[in-house]
Amino acid sequence: MQIGFGLDTVSVLSGSGDIAAPAGIAPLSGLLEAENVVVLGASIMDGSFGSPAINAALQPFAAAIGFTGTLVTYSASGDEISNTIARLSTAKTDLAASAGSNLYIVHSGGNNVSNNRPYPGGKAVFQTDYTALMDAIVADGDKVVPLPLTKRFYVEAPLVVEGDDATEANGSLPYNENIIHPAISAYAPGFMVDGAPYANPYAFADRWNDYIGGDGIHGLGKCLAHYILMRVAGRALGLSDGARAGRTLIYSLKNGQPYEYLPGAAYNELTSYSTGANDPVFVGALDTAGLLDPFIEVEAGPFSTSANVTLDDADFRDRLADSRFHDIDMMQSLIGVSGTDVLTLTFTGLYPGDLVTVKVAAQHAFGNTTARVGDVTLNGGETVQVNAGSGALSNQAEFAQIAVPADGKLVLDLAVAPGANYGYLGAVLLDFA
């Protein structure tokens, strides 16, 4: 797996948000190679990684992005930091044979915040217990990644209100800034880059707060686990956010269980339910050269139809001008819309100003050249048509090159073309100039 993007230095976006790290940050050893990757925390980690055992689908995901060890969990819902310390003791006993070769990923203290907010409620106990937890982890040489707490949108007074900075003191941010950020600097300094956390669940929860449930705390599910593992792997490799010049990302769109792993191939599976439910945010990707991209995230909205088609290996490539779509497994599944429904795919975490050419493709059983035609619109501007049922090259369409806007987003909207019955997408390609 390659190291670094070869980028120019770029600046920090936000002291409490995600970071844009300087190019050439040094790789960190002992993370991807850890014999065990141990998850510690409470209900947030349970909901993300599984409990009492790791969600089985996360192990191949971790392996696909470079981890060689075994994922294990000692998290439990309701735990405060003192309870996490007790579970750590059990973990240290269970994993004594690999002491000094384990990695602990810690997201603990949320229940301390809930029980003692607003800051500085419970600060002294939080600080004392958190320090004791960190000391106990590294005492025998094991490594630790302390994670900032997710943003907690408390719905009972004192409130934390989205977009109202004055209410942040009622939630987890001051505990992060005053206790956990300094702990990252002390116990895992490589994960503080230009003064901000490289792996930052607070920023992730803030960014995707629409998926947090009615309690304002839970609901991100495996999306958060994917984010955490991606960011730890990215930091281990020394990867920096920035321009993607010369790189290509390809996504294959499928209906079914939301994606759990990255295939070891030149495309990324983006598998979701038609309702858009159950982990609809897809974190990270592998580009066509096999380089990890831990920064890109894709939101898959609801769709109304899907298909799995048997393609004729002799002719399906003749309907696709770009040979990078010439993978029969990638193209034989597709999702789409009917009637007035619109499917929206949002690619975020892109680098503003990057020049990118977007290509879209879909293939269905051909012979009816008018029934399966989709209109695809990019960022509310240019619209192209993909005719999945045509025997000609209209199975593929290409947008004019566009510069990534300041918000780092590309949005694709798929609708049924006038006179057609369905619109389909099977694959999306992002080609960065």
Automatic annotation (TrEMBL):
SUPFAM superfamilies: SGNH hydrolase. It comes from the Bacteria. This is SGNH/GDSL hydrolase family protein. It comes from Rhodovulum iodosum.
